[in-house]
Amino acid sequence: MRIPAHSVCTAIRDDIVSGVYERGGRLTEELLARRYGVSRVPVREALRTLEAEGFVVTRRHAGACVAEPTEQEAADLLEMRLLLEPLGASRAAQRRTEAHLKVLRGLVRLGQGRARQGHSDDLRSLGGWFHETLAQASGSPALTSTLIRLRHKIGWMYEVRGTRDPVECWAEHGAVVDAVVRGDGERARAVMALHTERAAAAHRLRFTAGAGGAERADRTARAEGVRDSQHPVNTPSLRS
């Protein structure tokens, strides 16, 4: 594999998230440089960035290794997302550009069409693109980078289980965009909060690393499930 030097960080991060490198495994500069077809300099810089993001840790006598997050840390990420995704949607309603709206509308049309047809293979990637575009529409580089990093780390630590209806999920995406188009920050915040709560309820840890964090993660999932059952979505009302 040969990739541009400036893309090394993204490539290593993607491989960590996809499980190419196991938690706790060593990341040697020489082997990484050989794998990606670059010198050791961009690899070294990428490892520093990934350490700052929490994907990599440096251990004495071992060097760079894939981080081993605790269940407590994983639960904290879901809680952060529950707070920040609605904030991003609210800001997007106030600061979005026509270019953002064009992309968001297009993604919603595509996602809703694929969901109705039962073509679910690429809905996850479309959903990621939707959320990243919405974050960029917030007009805050700090919030955007935080939300994108959260999504990467949650995707690394959790798998999504459950039977959420893709049509319903994309109806929620559409309702968020409707609010953003109207400049209704409170509506965008409320719909995104509900959407994020329901998404969190379907997440299950890929690993176990201590009872305390696991109990908290289970409590969070149960709490979201309770809220979900108490507030059924009525798709037409979302668009009101």
| Mean pLDDT metric | 86
Low-confidence spans: 210-240
The total count of strands amounts to: 4
Q: Fraction of residues in helices?
A: 55-70%
Which structural class is indicated by helix and strand composition? Answer: mainly alpha
Helix and strand run:
HHHEEHHHHEHHEHH
Strand order of the largest sheet: 1-2
Described by the principal axes of the CA atoms, the overall outline is globular
Structure description:
There is one protein chain. The longest helix has 25 residues, at 71-95. 70% of the residues lie in helices and 6% in strands. Helix 1 (8-18) runs parallel beside helix 7 and helix 4 (71-95) packs antiparallel against helix 7. The chain is mainly alpha-helical. A hairpin with a 3-residue loop joins strand 1 (56-59) and strand 2 (63-66). It has a two-stranded antiparallel ribbon. It starts with 7 loop residues before the first helix and ends with a helix. It is globular, with a radius of gyration of 19 Å. Residues 210-240 have low confidence and may be disordered.
Short description:
By secondary structure, this protein is mainly alpha-helical. The protein contains 11 helices and 4 strands, in the order H-H-H-E-E-H-H-H-H-E-H-H-E-H-H.
Topology:
Layout: H1 8-18, H2 29-36, H3 40-53, E1 56-59, E2 63-66, H4 71-95, H5 98-117, H6 123-136, H7 141-157, E3 158-160, H8 166-182, H9 185-201, E4 203-205, H10 211-230, H11 235-238
Antiparallel strand pairs: 1-2, 3-4
Helix pairs in contact: 1-3, 1-7, 2-3, 4-7, 4-8, 4-9, 4-10, 5-6, 5-8, 6-7, 8-9, 9-10
